[in-house]
Structures
1.
Amino acid sequence: MHAETASAQVAAYLQQHETKGLLRFITCGSVDDGKSTLIGRLLHDTKLLLDDQVSALEADSRKHGTQNGEIDFALLVDGLAAEREQGITIDVAYRFFGTERRKFIVADCPGHEQYTRNMATGASTADVAVVLVDARKGLLTQTRRHSYIVKLLGINRVVLAVNKMDLVDYDQAVFDAIAGQYRELAAQLGIEHVHCVPLSALRGDNMIARSPQMPWHDGPALLELLETVPVEQNDTEAAFRLPVQWVCRPNQDFRGFAGTVVAGQVAPGDAVVVLPSGRRSTVSRVVTADGDLPVASEGQAITLTLADEIDASRGDVIASAAHPPEVADQFAAHLLWMGDERLLPGRPYLLKLGTRTVGVSVTDIKHRVDVNTQEALAAKHLELNEVGVCNLHLDQPIAFSPYERNRALGGFILIDRQSNATVAAGTLDFALRRAANIHWQHLDVDKAGRARIKRQLPRCLWFTGLSGAGKSTVANLVEKKLLSLGKHTYLLDGDNVRHGLNKDLGFTDEDRVENIRRVAEVAKLMTDAGLIVLVSFISPFRAEREMARALFESGEFLEVFVDTDLAEAERRDVKGLYAKARRGELRNFTGIDSPYEAPDSPELHLRTAEADPLALADKVIAALGLDAHDFGL
């Protein structure tokens, strides 16, 4: 009987720990506020370190520590050699620990401004932020920066930890002043819940239990607070939402849609809609690895089968038919720029929201936010770690919820199309309603009909290269040859277009991107008219040339790299532009103080130093295949 009782007690204990709640929190603040020390102390004092870990910590403290041989708790978290050598936190360090009342995942975020993007990564999944302030220094610029990002990423509960109280003789007046200042900041930012704790992470005061050094503090110690602070649901919507991660079809008799419920509940018989297509059905089964469920709730990974054979794929959202989310392709959003190269409006990127990836461009930067003062500042681009309020245009509609209502359907990242690197994190604020009244108008006469009457296949010949490389010369000769063959053409030359359509644009990187975006759209319209259009623009950036290519059908766009080295282009300098640029009279000139990104794999590579323009023009004509019965028509 005793063995059975012991077994039951063990089972009950394991069940208790399995069902304990989980709190995700971050520590953030300025450099040397004691974030790593605080986490190390929590791990040490909650008895979660093994004897060999304690021994290793003692040895590391003697070798790398900053406490004159005593235990340096920060070393438990600052695991990178570079961090230990510099005495700073560079990357986000995650640690797991637990108590009798709750499990915790804590992210120790770097304090330096240049690692703000790392801090945002840690904050994106947190429920609570522990903002540390050095009692000797009070609120600093980085404290304000991190608090702004905390609010931006949807954390509405902050624990203000006023650390190093031992260095100000545990003075209540110091604590009260800092707490009052932070509450004012939190109110300005819209942070709803602030809990203030005076402590010394190094000495352990008010960490695990209330400290006799500060009898004037009648609130809980830090760990007590973390064990009891309410964990708010990220989603305040009651309606069901499931982004489809995978279409499961192990055999002909089963077709299910797998994903994690991000809001609400679902049960067999519920009416659902698949977005953005809008197709409707009802739920037949809620399937899991452990069998079917009568109901599934937020956070559960499930597979749904539907009563009807409707089309749905990865990235679609299955939602309550009675209360579906919105669908749109234009948004206002907040962006935290993480790329080393600055954000340029009009440049194409990929947007990943949940399981869906679509093409996107930033059409407008409404303003940049000074995250230290929350002031709105005019901006034409965003640099690393800057936050901006922007308008986005997607190449297809998506189902979404504003980020403040649902992180899973409102938080996204931007991906560079060339490098596949993550260059921004963002939050969707609302759809831009002005696009709701714009629809594609059906036209009975299409591109094929317009081309047929001209007896030619539409093409876009995109000539790119340095100023003076010979683009306009070759393109002009190609058009003359096409005209002599009876072809219908139009030549869009960079200088000529800037006299009219693009006369409002300068030569900054932002204006260059917009310059190419506009001419690419015009070239697309001209090919729709059945023309062979020749575009002669420097078009210095690969991303914009790829954006232009994406507008055309396969095989319709030919990139022609007119290649001349810089020295030869300067020697020619027909317009005297290089000379002006060298004298500093012409700013942002390609090849001098603005880069030219050569094509990686153009359809044609013309080296003007090796052949005369007529011969190069003949190569272009040959590439068009004009001998094939007038393009096969």
Note: The chain has four domains: 2-228, 241-320, 327-436, 447-632.
2.
Amino acid sequence: MTKKQYLIKIKKLLGTAFVALSSLGAAEPVIDVYVSTGDNHFLGSSLPIDSSASIEAAFDLLKNVNHARRVYWRGLEEACWVSTMHARPESCRTYSFWQWLQTLYAEVRPDELAVKAAHMRDMEIWGVGSLWDWGPLAETAGFGDVTGLESKLKLAHPEWAPVDKHGARRQGGPIELAYPEARKALVDLTVSETLKAGYDGICFLTYVENFSLRFQDEFGYSDPIVKDFKAQHKIDIRTEPFKRGASREDWLRLRGSYVTAFLRELKAELDGHKIKLGMVVNSNDPRQPQSWNVPELVLTAGSHHMDVDTWVRDGLVDELLIYGNNSPQSQYKTLDDLLFLARGTKTSVSVMTSDPFRTSWKPYQERGMPAVLTVSEDWHHLFRGFVPEQTVAALQSQDMYQRMRALQQCGNSPLSPALSPDESALVRCAASSNLIERRLALQALGKLKTADIKPLLAGLNDAENGVRCVAALALAERKDPVACQALLQAVERHGNHMLRECVLIALIRLTPLPVAELGDAALHSKSDNVREIAMRSLMLHTKPALLPVFREGLKDMARFPRFAAAEALGNIAGNSEVIKLLIDTLNHEDHAVANRAAVSLGRLAALKRPETGTLRPQMLAALIVAFKKHGDAKLPDSEWGWRSIGNAILDFGDEGAAVLRQIRDQREDMRLAELAWRVVDLTQRPNAFSIVSPEQNEEAMKRRPDN
């Protein structure tokens, strides 16, 4: 036996260990499951939950494969967003997702279906919400050129967004819990959506998903915080430094006291309905908010002391869930600390993990600790479930979950032996009455490069959206351009956000790319969705020969194709005709397209291609003209357009920064001076943190025009 064969055998034995122990009467570990519904409603590869049939099939899987006791369902966050968020149509991709959510919550009502499905299977279901993720200001750089969603609560009460000590910047995401009225609004919203769904309990995540924070202690200086700190410690934290007896730690504890006040007020309401309350905690330090799921360990909600000691002592939380996304060692340390803290109380402690069968969890599980399986795709649930590894013969089994496990091994087999199935067996499974089995079979057929492509094409017209999405992703694996027309037809027929995103993935991987076919669809299809997806697929394969397509695309009757055309032009480097077209597009009647043209010009300027060097002065001059238009506060994009254009000017390097400083330092137009200062001194780039030190921030504040 080779070393590899030996390791495979050991892994197989370990994979079935819990099943074997269960058959001998040993206690089975308690497994709960986390479903991040917003991601599942965006990503076609995630466990499908966008229809009655898919939710039923998903909960069958959680019950029969993962033996789930409780499901943590992130629908509470989605429902609160649907009921309170303002969506900006200029953020095309986010707005597309927003429209999909509106449809789901109006026509499918996924949270209510999930609660019904869980209770029918004797499982608990807890709603998962966000304590602080209420969307950033429009000017805050996010995933693209303009932030798509922001809570109407913040728009109605701008002061509820945390503010810096200078009153110059407001944080993206949180609603400041120091305001009693804000706490009440969030308690009322949370209780309303919880009762509407029918959850047995709820819990909160404590990170926010945006890049607005520039240094850790930047925000937390709202009026009630300043007032309360001064009453307690006799200093004004906006103008005086921390000191002994009035320290940063005291400030953190004060901010944390408002979180505790919110939980206390919410708990009082939930207790009347016999609904449990939990909190997800940072595994590096449970007394701080969570870091976001990005490489940087930035505590994106800002600095707070999360007073878990008081929460447990006063019975404010029924469950503490230790998040993953950090090293296992940090999770073990936090688990030990919190188990000790919660000893003798009614507060339970659990861990969120992608591997609940890890050997190191076993001593804790023997003491009854639940492990919360935190994965996303159907095959993940099978790989981390109680169904043991199968042979290829299982594809003929009468047991559906054995077939599913075998299909998982055919399509995705990390750390377990891959199976080499007969194509006909996969085709039979692709016709199953169970949509998850159909999805797994299509995934396996996608990996089987010699298989007939027809079952995948047929999958694009499946009755279930979740199957159609996986069929598109399987075609992405095959890369066969013969699928192009069928993919576009699927968009025309079904066209929801999830499917369009999956079809886009498939189209851009077709080899060779059917440029002529896509170009024709981008310009001439009667479907807005088809023109959008065709244009976006060409965007990543730009060549000067496609310039006529993008030029005409700028005139499209729908915004998203126009926007995609303006973005695509920024990918054609070294072409003077492209630059002249983008300069003209700065005056486009659609302000979203005009600002995307500015971003594309900035991208081309940053490349510093010699072929277009003579046009740099003209490019910069046009962007300056566009920026100066924002002296008018009545423009439709007055909240954010200046940021997109200003960042494009910064892409010119020192030359661009110098121009912005000149605008900042003039005094004829103070609004323009302020905006230029925000761009050049309070830099916010999209898709990244713009980290500065507190000292650098103080120097920037001295340069503010009204100083």
Note: The first helix runs from residue 3 to 15.
3.
Amino acid sequence: MEAAKIQAFSAFVEIPLQPASYDIWDKKYRLKTKTGEAVDQEIRDTFLRVARALAEVERPEKRELWFEKFLWALDNGAIPAGRVTSNAGAQDHKPATSTINCTVSRIVPDSMDGILASVHEAGLTLKAGCGIGYEFSTLRPRGAFVSGAGAHTSGPLSFMDIFNAMCFTVSSAGGRRGAQMGTFDIAHPDVMDFIRAKREDGRLRQFNLSCLITDEFMQAVKNDESWDLMFPANKFEYEDSSANMVWRYWPTTEGYVTNNIGQVACRIYRTVPARRLWDVIMASTYDFAEPGFILIDRINEMNNNWFCENIRATNPCGEQPLPPYGSCLLGSVNLTKFVEHAFTEQARFNWDKYREVVGIFTRMLDNVVEVNGLPLAQQRHEIEYKRRHGMGFLGLGSTLTMLTMRYGSPESLEFTDRVSREMAEVGWEIGVELAKEKGPAPILEEEFTVSEEMLAKRPEMKRDGFKAGDKVRGKVLMAKYSRYMQQFDRKITNEIVRHGCRFTHHTSIAPTGTISLSLGNNASNGIEPSFAHKYSRNVIREGKKSKEKVDVFSFELLAYRTLINTSADPDTQDEKNQLPDYFVAADDISPREHVDIQAAAQKWVDSSISKTANVPTNFPYDEFKDIYMYAYDKGLKGCTTFRFNPEAFQGVLVKEKDLENTLYRFELSNGETVEVKGNAEIEYDGETHTAANLYDALKEGYYGRF
């Protein structure tokens, strides 16, 4: 390019929102009155509303200063998560909504009263607009005898159906799709049923599902050992001398037989080869993209609150592992905003501006705690006591492309490491400053009694002179003995020991689906590469009987067409208009490269990362099945994969060539069958549908229910 033209585009270039992006903002984030009239006239009004609402938390004499700073950060890449963007400053129009994206249920008790009470609490949480996660392996296995009822239980999955129906009803009434995560212990007797649950058409479609995978199970798979499936024994089972029993830690000890170190007596129901169970997970994930993979021991080992929490569940997309009643707010920094001289040899990332945005955004997100709007007192206590927030980024794939780096390359790993590390370092520095100004998270000032279990988890505490019974403040236990915090410069951790920190958790990388598409103009989601550079998105339209197919383009393609070549096209055969080699999308990345990128970021992320390794439909199973083991070996906290399988489901994001190459078979009322390509349009029941979306709506049972 000519020097003058490069200079003209040295700063970030604003590209008009594509129609799909504007539409998502209008439907999800634009504030409207109860009668549907727009309060936010344009996107900047949304930013003004959010900045004003969060600045009101500050001292009166500082509110205008922080309003201007917050607005500047929003203009320059800070994007609060969907609940904040939608609900902050909106109390006059929707007072019963929350600014919190992520929650986890209390431990679901193994009793009818406890289960139904949990459904009630979950309904209130979903109604407020929050996502919620639950562990269901606390419920006894199918066929177990319930002495109080004099009958045998139908098992955890049947109760999950109740939560599923409740979620669908609440989300249908509220206009926003409810989001739930169901987790399940890999040693539960019904784990095979859980893994295969979504093979049944229409079942548990309001859930994401993930297995809680332990280090012990992974070693059993590696060593080709047997694996015990077990559940806590009742008193009569424990006293039966013929029963096969083991001791293990369990999320709750109430009503169970325990030993002197808090373990619960568990009855072994049966034993299976660990690799057989592993193969069932891999086959289900290959065909149905579920269950996900949560490495629960690693999550607890790396938790900053290791001394007072036992985590067994996550929010719906997995980026926030949380304790019972745990809550967390989210926000993401749009990395594309910091690229200068995009697509040229002079391409660079503005690190100084990035650090400034992260610093202001950290304070802004901390203020969200004060306007949380959570419906349950236990949730409000958790978020105010620990002040968790999860700042992450979006647009990593788009940014790497604009910097002329191929996603998954060694240089892209170095960039991912640095962009994650600098976010974390700035966040902790601001957290200490906020603690000095406003006070630390209350948990960090509380004193905790050192136990033998704590000394076993952290032998270095003994070397430092601690013994059982000593009292230690939370800020010392976090700053000095958190495995995560030990990676940082002593200057940061010493400051936390001295002054505390405003929060216990700072970073989390969310999937950012609709905020990327809307406010990010379809910058790539979270830590992902772009799904494709031209594709379709299936969206729910109120009053429409099936999902609607909307065409979208990646941000980097729009930017490349604006800056370099207006005729560039990812599908062109014309050499002049082809995109450079570094213009890759999800299917161009190997599963190992997906994991490598996640591992580069995870080191500096104190919560977790929502990441999906996308693979093509024809990707060989033999190559696919090792991806989770590779993720375990790379130190990840979890892993999810997606392979488009038209026989199983119609995804949210779809490539035209997949639809073109897939035939859907419809049976007519006269018994005839018709085969139609997925992208064909069909007139049915007074509406026009794509064949793929109509087929999916009829098969999954949601046709006409939006």
Note: The two ends are 50 Å apart (CA to CA).
4.
Amino acid sequence: MNLELPLEAVKGVGEKTAEQLHAAGLDTVYDLITFLPRAYEDFSEVVAIADIRPGKRTIRAHCEKVEIKRVRRGMTVTTAVLSDGTAKLNAVWFNQPYRAAQLKGDDEYYFSGTFEFSYNRYQLTNPSAEKVSDMPVSTDRIVPIYRAIKGLKSQLVRKLLIELRPYVRVLPDPLPDGIVKSQKLLPYAEALLALHFPKSSADIERARERLAFDELFDLLLAAELNKQSHASLKGWQIPFDQVAVKDFVAGLPFQLTDAQRRAAWEIIQDFERDVPMNRLLQGDVGSGKTVVAGLAARQAASSGFQSAIMAPTEILASQHAETLTALLQPFGVTVGLLTGSVKGKAREELYKQIASGGVDVVVGTHALIQDAVTFHRLGFVVIDEQHRFGVAQRQQLLHKSDHMPHLLAMTATPIPRSLALTVYGELDISVLNERPKGRKPILTKLWSPNSRSQLYDLIEEQLAQGRQAYVICSLIDDNADNELKSVQAEYKKLRVGPFKHRQIGLLHGKLKPAEKEAVMADFASGKTDILVSTTVVEVGVDVPNATVIMIENADRFGLAQLHQLRGRVGRSERQSYCYLVMSDSKAPSKRLREIEKSNDGFHLAQVDLDLRGPGEIYGRAQHGDLNLQVATLGDTQLIARAQREARAFVTANRDLLQYKQLANQVERYQRLTKLN
């Protein structure tokens, strides 16, 4: 059996059909067999016409009369009178004139469709029709519905899968037999047959459990193997300098939270081992990740090691450099900033300082991974907002050391436990789930766009007390065909309207780096009262005097992003406010009500994961598609089962190459999820 056989070799696949299948990304027999239904319609119960009720129904009948009418704009309506001996009913098809020729003669058919009241009468609308003498594809059964990629019809997929059914029956099982038995799973071939040709809802559930287990097992086994591979690496050992750490903590103008202390101690312990650290520091907005990274950089510097901190934007890199300079300079630890804005002689001088060891901590953007950057003794790498960097970019920075440096990946997007176990399974995880003492929860309120004038009054109250405000929009330029607010239009409106007496700044991604810095400097120093911005301020921007953020078209954002944006305020002891303005005056969704009720980023991340999938949290562009057709990363029970089996597989030192299909998928996940 050749699963790599091109679909052109399958009966019923001509040139035109092959084009359709290729456009949908289906090239081989295996591609089609593993193309799973997205939903099901239950037409398994055949009812007599005399007993029919509204809803999705299947009848067995013959056609007494059929006719075609042409109506406006070339549209056709085909109507038929169907009879099964108990009664008669009307069926109607729109733009399907071929039905008239199909239904001629005395043949009996299964008709499956929606029986409804329409056009002043009850009728069966757009039903499928298949001869009783043929093996039904779309009727008299639970009918699978497939994704209509590039217009691909479910009817065509079902028809071809009947041809491929013998292949499905004898598919080899990708999982070791012992795992299938111990987990009481359906055999792989049976599971696929049950999904493509289900006999009952219970069949579908058992089949989905089997394939979901496979997907999670593959992902978790990849993480375990990445972890095992990492454990064999040799890194720098950085001894614990208790005096240096104590002095650093004593010099802080605030007390560390318990969560910060725990995370810092975990990093210090990792430093002492000769296996390089591979740790993710995830913290809610404003939980103080930069201070933890600064403490670790101080520890590294005390043993003569350099640290590199890479951030995704110049604004964030500049902010980190400023914060770290204030934290580390009193201890003689030098901090350098390398971004695209550093040019000419200043850049060349910084290159020399990095290469000679004259700079202890280098903060930068992608500029850090350029060939011209050579480190003297790089021992510690921090990648902030790591999901914004690709695997290759992270590796380029790590390769700038003779030994594998200790890696701390940081994210301000809290990650649900289920996602952490699977996608980040190879990492040790530290969590900052406490806000600094004295910080008040941000008061969040949803607003109708019709009540904007009252909202401006509330913002003005804060400005009158000497505070500052953000106004966030999601587009840069006006677009007549798009109802989203653009920052430029909003900036002009506020300048001549409700806030014409205020100083207003404009910030967006198309500004040159120097212009961005000037705008941020004016806002940070209090020269501007309101900053109208795109989501470029989403992460890391820290202006304690800003107490109000207003987000236009808030319903167009994910919860994780709204929570990040909300975190631009509430960075001092003063009460702060977040106003979420809807696109229209309809009732807000349950999703948005969650952010109004909760300041807990971990709770909101779980809600986002359940509603929108892992892409929102994990980052799509640089990791590729996880391609989970069945598994959900919120199924903690199935994840726990798959994790136990993955760990047992690695502990038993089993040879993955014995299982070709499993090995291919695991290798793919290893590439997608590896952080270093």
Note: Residues 307 and 380 are 5 Å apart (CA to CA).
